[in-house]
Amino acid sequence: MSLPPAKASELKQIIHDRLLKMDIHGRIREVLSETMEDDRVTAHRPLSEGDFLHALQCRGIIDEVMKDLQISEEPATDVGSESPFKSVTHFVNKDKIPLKKTIIDPSQRYLYLQVLGGKAFIEHLQDPEPLPGQVCSTFTLHLHFRNQRFHSKPVPCACEPDLKEGFILEIHKDGTGDGSKMVDATTMLSLCDPAHLVLIKTDTASETTLVSSYFLDWRTVLSSQSSKTCFAVELMGVGSECKVPAGILTVSLELYPPLSETLSFDIISTQQSLERQKTADKERLFLVYAKQWWREFLEIRPSHQSKLVKIFAQDENGVNRPVCSYVSVLRAGRLLESPRQAARFVSLLAHEKAPVVGGGGSKQEQWCTLMAFMCRGKGDCEDHATLLCSLLLGFGLDAYVCVGTKSKGLPHTWVLTRGTDGSITFWESLTAHRYLHQPIDPDSPPMAPQHKQSSPYRTVGCVFNHQTFLANCQPSDAVELCLFDFQNPSCWKAMSEEALRSVCAPGSITSLPPLPPLCAPSLDPAATSNRLELEMRYLISEHRKDLDLATVWDDHISYLLSSALSAYEMERCTGVSCGNEEFQDAVRRAVPDGHTFKGFPIHFLHCNARRAFAICLRSSFCEEIVCCRGDNVRLAVRVRVFPYPENACAVWLMFACKYRSVL
Q: Which of 16, 150, 235, 259 can pair with 212 through a Cys bridge, CB separation 3.0 to 4.6 Å?
């Protein structure tokens, strides 16, 4: 059976990549050298091609290659829905783990980025070698390049971690650039988008830590005659350790197909130097403008000196950037269906302040880039607020990040949206709660009724989004007295939108991190729910066994709890309670007369059954159910996992029991 030319070209390229990964050329050279040496010793006849093939077969290299290249055929697809370029046949490695399918277009240019290993991660110098099957801390490398995201498989943490992974990156993605022709070296030189590498450490308790965030300029490969280059990348720490090396990765870059004409190294260096100079000039001009704007703001009232007006913020690499650059218009595609569901998703990302070495109670200044925040899966209130504001802007709302304080005067950030009718709504990004703002009129008569404030926010110093920055210049910065009329210059002092665009608009400067897309969840909700439920049943049975109590499960009651858990999650997403009447009616039918029913729902952000059970037992209500004594005691437990983008998940558990009271 003959293959079409495009398919044959794709298949040849995949086989070529596989043979390169096996270092087949080096092994063939070794066999050739040994065979020629033997031929010199014998010196009976010249070396033929048959002799060389026989030598390869004797050493098992041919069998090993054929065993490694196991072809897995793809299922037939509907021709009508087929994409213009079919998914290439993929190969199965020795561990029988199928490689991810990649759509290869022979007319397009690709960058093959390989990580060949790590070294000098001295924090793990004393770590013992993990035993087979032992749970240990792991490293995972995440990559973002031109709207494409990938991650490596987890590897055990070590001084020299076995981080070996390859990523095929499209140079032109989602219609960027001229996709109708092969991109040449000159065009690629003008593409200044870096490859963003984020290294995450996950400990044995599934807690994640941001190890390093690095922006890789890949254009050095354009000067290589072979279209391939290899070099070491020094990863720096984050936060207070941003000047301290965290480790080194060996990285290989290769262009497919190879370039017919390369660029000189001097041209690439000149281009990079010009980009840095242009960025530095824009940043310097904006800094001069920001200082002048700040002086004008202080001249309005001396009390403005104490207001929380934050123009710049430091990211995980210690780089000061305008706060407006942390917000972008982010569309979630099919992954999120509404603004309230977006707020729910953001609230499921754990809240954790930036770590500080030592005491003193001081708060570490660190706003994370969006890529680092989503890969880590947790961050401070500023990270949550900027992500929620970006998503709400994507849904077409007039959204802003507010910087101020909440109760007890603690610094805080939250999100504000303005309706077309002038209504103001506050969104708490950590909880997804919404509050309608109704200001108090300080000039109204003393006995006039005033609106009671429902929000926890105390003061607001400034608001901003991706193209606007406004400082509060009202006599009082108390939230309950504030008017959010941003067009009124006597209430809010605005920065020049043109000045903000010069350093915050996408593509304005090369130092801006590229905006990553959201990733769809990879969790199987049904399988994960079943696994957690079985683990929870085991833990409850063992706990009751320690108390000399028997455990009898009621599967029917367990099934009925599902509707309640679904209603709880829907209420968190929409703010509307529904389905409670049906659940109560079903429980009444399932519990006989003279019996008592008790239930205890609880919500978690992780899938660790032991951690969840230990926390549940701290509640007297839950302990009363788990340790229930009585006549004809029947227990029930139900777990529902609701997955969201970035593998954030809402985990709902409900414990229940029914028994005949013998009092």
A: 235
